[in-house]
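=== Structural record ===
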Amino acid sequence: MTFQFLLHSLTQLHDAFLLTSFCSKGNLWSPSLLTIICAGLNSPLDDIRSLVPRYVFGEAEIRDLFDQEKQVGKEVTPVVGGELDVMTGWDGMKSATEEQKETIRKQVDKAHEMGLVIRYSYQNRGNARELVRKTLMEMGVDLVM
């Protein structure tokens, strides 16, 4: 699906004021019932930045939190996400080490300091799923998928 097709398909929802929007000209947020987030490697962040008003947002990678050049901010990328094992070194098969927990804490703290939602993806590996979900939620992670 192209970005222009996505925008076209959202027109009625936007016109009915059902989509969260942001107007960069007035720095004005209008929260609503639905917030559209484009996630993944092909997220069209340049196209999203050019929308005025913006009613489609992107997801930045967790590692982008610490890169000033990536310009991560809730106005364009209100969510940061990534694969748990890639972002933290924890595969979830046993309890996280203190070093892995510290990595997660730093990522969660930085995201929340910037007003962002943080999401980790975790591939279900049997009984470990509940351990992962519980540990991450206790550490302040907003979404576990």
